[in-house]
């Protein structure tokens, strides 16, 4: 949900990236897009630590029925974050 123009609010303004995706997106397209954006975000913000909120509602078979992802797509994105060798707090949700 949301728009590409959503940039956060309050103290988080301009520290938010919203990536609106079409329903039905699959692993290859999702992981390529998200990993490319993660790299750009890292270059822009140069973080010392990363907090990643990983939901499962994009997985195929989820009641939300939005996307058709497998754990492979989410794992590929996580692999990108781990490759940065920064402290990483990984949250489920």
Automatic annotation (TrEMBL):
Enzyme Commission number(s): 3.5.1.98
Domain of life: Eukaryota
Keyword field: Chromatin regulator, Hydrolase, Nucleus, Repressor, Transcription, Transcription regulation
Histone deacetylase domain segment(s): 1-88
Transcription regulation found in the keyword field: yes
Catalytic activity reported: N(6)-(2E)-butenoyl-L-lysyl-[protein] + H2O = (2E)-2-butenoate + L-lysyl-[protein]; N(6)-acetyl-L-lysyl-[protein] + H2O = L-lysyl-[protein] + acetate; N(6)-acetyl-L-lysyl-[histone] + H2O = L-lysyl-[histone] + acetate
Membership in a protein family: Belongs to the histone deacetylase family. HD type 1 subfamily.
Enzyme class: hydrolase
Main location: nucleus
Localization in the cell: Nucleus
Name this protein carries in UniProt: histone deacetylase
